[in-house]
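Q: Start with the shorter request: fold the first protein.
A: Done. Sequence, then structure:
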Amino acid sequence: MPLSIIRNDITRVSADAIVNTANPHVGVGEGTDLAIYEAAGMEALLDERAKIGDMEPGQAAVTPAFDLDAKYIIHTVGPAWRGGDHGEKETVAHCYRNCLREAVRLECESIAFPLISTGTYGFPKNAALDIAVREFTDFLDDHEMDISLVVYDKESFALSSELFSDIRSYICDADAKRRVFDEALPFLAPESSVPIDEDVMRSAPRSAMPPVRKKASGGFRFLRRKGDREEKAEKAERTEAPKHYEEADPDTGYSVGMALPESMESEKSIVPDETTGALYSKRSIDESLEKLLNTKEETFQQMLFRMIDSKGMTDPEVYKKANIDRKLFSKIRSNVNYNPTKKTAIAFAIALGLNLDETTDLLRRAGLSLSPSNHFDIIVKYCIEHGFTNIHEVNCILFEFDQMLLGA
């Protein structure tokens, strides 16, 4: 996954380069800076840092990583927050930009960032997150590199309060609608056929419920009430049916002594329908199945690449926007029957800017769907309905709500 958000101690992350929010002067600061010095080796790292000298906000410089699981430490100085009117946002953007430029120069394949300036320097976390996502998105449009945004704890990461509240309300509304639907199931029209909660079923008044049959797979199946005439017809059919099967020849399915229809004399296998007793030849079944197979709809892969062409997008543009590794994308392109994971399929839908109906159709080709009772699916639906097309912004939302991220 080109960009991932992980909850971890950055000193324990494995990457070619680890970014340190450094003290502007030669010396050890607090927070991330102190943790990196202690993990890398205090004296050795201080000696290298002394060779760099004082640093300006936004600047980036490189030292060896020593005892960290990395090749390099890229030091950058973030700004202290002074209300936002002193160029703080532009300076933080330069921090990310200059660190990535150094990583390219060093030919790094992976880099891990903290959320710069959000610790002791007091930069608002939601604003810092917006800047980081924008800079990472712009960089990945033109470069191939695995970027990790490392968040130490829940308090170190935050969406805007307005967005968080809106999504939380959307989830609560979806949960409430589902609960109302579940509680109403026992009182639905008799012809309904859906799984329901057994506790709800037990608590509902019997007079209000249609007859039900418990299914082996769990839940209940509502049965349509039958009239007297229907019941009599079914009783007569059950009475007559055994005669047919008791006298049926085991090889042909026809009653003993009954002449085989001329049109089926050459058939080797006759299959009786269990409900009606009607007979079908193996050849007719094979032909019907073959016809269905020959008229099947597009696969996920076929629909995906048709949509890419219709949007006028290039392959690199799509897999980068979808946060998909280039090797996986090549694998999908070469396999017409490729079945993706749910997070990969949705990532393509977001990257292509599909609406909810189009997304539903694309997922269906892979045997997938969006569930109204799954928070991951509800959040994805929210993002699609509200026009989110930046996969990294969507992943920030999913991360905030402790859900898996999109891409592969």
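Q: Next, the second protein, separately.
A: Sequence, then structure:
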Amino acid sequence: MKSHEIDYKIYGDDMQVVAIELDPQETVIAEAGAMNWMDTEIAFEAKMGDGSKTESGLLGKLLNAGKRVLTGESLFLTHFTNRGEGKKEVSFAAPFPGKIIPVNLHDFGGQILCQKDSFLCAAKGTEVSIAFTKKLGTGFFGGEGFILQKLVGDGKAFLHAGGTVIKKELHNEAILIDTGCIVGFTPSLEYSIERVGSLKSMFFGGEGIFLAKIHGTGTLFLQSLPFSRLADRIISSAPRSGGNDKGEGSVLGGLGRMLDGDNF
């Protein structure tokens, strides 16, 4: 099924929003909860499936939805369709700071693999499924999981990345990466997990025991701030119960909380 031809505009810098412009009867699919605003003529419906092809009854829909559950995503994708006359707009944003990456799947051979949290939205006709890495070790030591999302089609899709986005073109070469820093890559690249460094470096270096190895020829998108890394830092700096606050501004300790009125 040929993907709908959608136009778009990206707003912002570090907390970006993508506004999708739909012609009458055009549809964009998105992760549940990603919508920011939309024109009143836009109709939306949650569906078990991406609408790229007709599933064989309820069982087919459940199987495709079940694949999405394996990646930790919702059972449903939301379909936004322009039911009015003339062009209408609907916009989407991710739940944490970062960049939105527009990808024309036609330019990447009709397919791209991405981390499970990277997919934001895409033109209807894009098939959103899953892909397993080839090596079992990747599943046990991959950190971010060895189940990747696979986007297939000939239209536009939008990925989200934390922090700064780096696009790298590999030409029969290899690179080692923290697993959380991978956003997406073309299927022509091989993805595996490598144990690196000495035992001392593995346990005390702070870079983890295993790194992802991407090698071959193709396109790779990286992010400087994976959400998992951001969440770990927030959790480690959060105030703890019992008054043992160690976050910024905790020099005053209990006195500061008294002045803020927390103890009154």
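Q: Describe the second briefly.
A: The CA atoms of residues 255 and 261 lie 10 Å apart. The chain has one domain: 7-230.
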